Amino acid sequence: MDIKKYITSGILELYVAGSLSEKENEEVHAAIQQNPELLTEVLSIENAIVKLTAAASKTDSTYLFTTIKKKVDGDVTKVVSISKPKNNWIQYTGWAASILIGSALVWSISQNNKLKDQVATEKQQLEEQIDKASNNLAEAEKLITIFRDKDIVSVPLSGQAVSPESYAKVYWDKKTNNIYLDAKGLPAPPKGKVYQVWSLKLTPLTPTSLGTIDTFMADNNKIFTIENANNSEAFGITLEDEGGAESPTLEQLYTLGAVPAAP
Amino acid sequence: MNLDQLVLQFQQKDIKAYEKLYNMYCNSVSGIVNNIVKNDDVAQEITQDVFIKAWNNSESYSSKKGRFFTWILNIARNAAIDYTRSKKFKQSKQNLNSDFFVDILETSQSLDNSTDAIGIKEFVTKLGDKCKKVIELLYFKGFTQKEASEELDMPLGTVKTRNRNCIGELRTMLGV
């Protein structure tokens, strides 16, 4: 490189002015690194421009450095110990608040759904209760009509040796060949056992099974409608194994009652 | 002290290096700013801002991109131009009556008494109009070579050599 020519081209003056492109600046910088002569020239140009530009200032600014130093020191401590944590604090608070609001929203939605479900369930339960009550009423009315019917024969069954406290009542409607057994006075059957109802002929003693009461525990009023086409003279109830027995186990005879003779 | 080293220490937030650089360049910065805002008090304020900005953004300077002095002059020009766009400046605009750094030199009453300043004052009054304009655009206004060539209606190469000659005269007079 021809150093003299490079210098006289005026590129270094433009370099100090900052008028060159970025690429040119890098080229000049590289050339200066390689040629100390260029650095001397640049320093001289710079010195002249420093003085020229300083002459356009009306007052000497050097005394102002203490003010700047204070501001810079203040800035440093501010930036390090106050500004940053403050920003973080605001940021964290913002995030915390939005999470809080978000979870509150989710919570209230789920609460709302829960309430809706609860209301629906309660409504259904209420409807079931009303339904049940009206059914019960219908049943009760039916029973009353049965009991008042003059053609129905009422047969009280009294407790026997195995369970003297027990009692039951049979209402026998001969027209429909149905008996209505009121078994409220019987104790709950042990597990694996059922009550079996028998129609009896007395001379000679002939038992005929009318069936087992499988729904004893489930039934609320303990009144069971059982078909009976026999010409019964007495009714008995025994406790049998689940499924019933061919003939009554007389040791487990709970109640027994004879049909009163027709007037 | 090597200037490159001084700048490096400044970038590492060495307040002593900062003060040295400030003392070297503060009047140049305020001269550049004053030439643009035409108000010495405002120029002093902006000069402070320029050096604080330089301190806060010191890591953005790289010697590959140019001289440190050139870098800080750039900050100064931008800060001054920003100010001229502010409301405050537009309200005080009617007081302006000088356009060139030359006028500032010629009309300044309180210029400090250094021989350099007096010498420059005498020198610039003797400069040709074309020299004054080239220096004004390139150093005070921060025009690129191309912008200056368009503004002065002059070929790129002529801008370069004329500027070289003008600065050469200045250097001779200052003995640098």
TrEMBL record, chain A:
Single GO term (MF): sigma factor antagonist activity
Keyword Coiled coil carried by entry: yes
Gene Ontology cellular component terms for the protein in this record: plasma membrane
Biological process annotations from GO: regulation of translation
InterPro entries: Anti-sigma-K/W_factor (IPR051474), RskA_C (IPR018764)
Taxonomic superkingdom: Bacteria
Keywords: Coiled coil
Coiled-coil features, chain-numbered ranges: 109-150
Domain Anti-sigma K factor RskA C-terminal: start-end pairs: 96-249
Name of the protein in its database record: Anti-sigma factor
Phylogenetic lineage: Bacteria, Pseudomonadati, Bacteroidota, Flavobacteriia, Flavobacteriales
UniProtKB/TrEMBL annotation, chain B:
InterPro entries: RNA_pol_sigma-70-like, RNA_pol_sigma-70_dom, RNA_pol_sigma70_ECF_CS, RNA_pol_sigma70_r2, RNA_pol_sigma70_r4, RNA_pol_sigma_r2, RNA_pol_sigma_r3/r4-like, WH-like_DNA-bd_sf
GO BP of this protein: DNA-templated transcription initiation
The keyword DNA-binding is assigned to this record: yes
MF GO annotations: DNA binding; sigma factor activity
Organism: Polaribacter aestuariivivens
PANTHER family: RNA POLYMERASE ECF-TYPE SIGMA FACTO, RNA POLYMERASE SIGMA FACTOR SIGZ
The family this protein is said to belong to: Belongs to the sigma-70 factor family. ECF subfamily.
Limits of the RNA polymerase sigma-70 region domain: 21-88, 126-171
SUPFAM superfamilies, alphabetized: Sigma2 domain of RNA polymerase sigma factors, Sigma3 and sigma4 domains of RNA polymerase sigma factors
Keyword DNA-binding found: yes
NCBIfam families registered for this protein in UniProt: sigma70-ECF (TIGR02937)
Alphabetic keyword roster: DNA-binding, Sigma factor, Transcription, Transcription regulation
Protein name (Swiss-Prot/TrEMBL): RNA polymerase sigma factor
